[in-house]
Amino acid sequence: MSRKPYVIGVTGNIACGKSLVLETLAGLGADTIDADRVAHEVMAPGTPTAERIIAAFGEEIRGQDGGIDRRALGAIVFRDPDKLALLDSLAHPPTVAAIRDRVAASTAAVVAIDAIKLFEAGVADDCDEVWVVTCTPEQQVERLMRRNGFDREEALRRIQAQPPQEEKVRRADRVIDNSGTVEATIAQVEAAWNALPAEVRLRITS
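Above: the chain sequence. Below: its structure as tokens.
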């Protein structure tokens, strides 16, 4: 009988550096799942989820490919908490179901799930431990402006639309501080990996 993988949930607010942590875990041997990528797949053009979201928010969010124009949708939901909650209620269930299917199908000793709404979507309940990635608020703003091409006002709006980082930190099993160098973050991830339970580390090396 196959053994269930040990599941690490990786979360943190927008632009805090979850992707770096996930990439490092992949290099160490974890099977990795990017929840945002899974969400893209379940909301691909023509899928039932995409059509439900377009029906809820209007044809103005339909892109040229017939699917969701994520930028147009983001401009709506990040200005209105109720509309963001509506989007979550439509997008989370199929995304979580797809993530659970991938975890169940994995033959790796460790699976790491990168999900910005790990707690809010209930995925944290499936995890053996949760790592929260942090950085300073100003770093979040700068990274969003550089990465997404947002102006400062839009970057701040995206950050402020999320629950406080402190709540995630309070519920974390481990905090990865990504406010320093890339090398410092990688060193923290490696230390956390080496601190996994002995039976998990044995499975990794066997």
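The mean pLDDT is 96.
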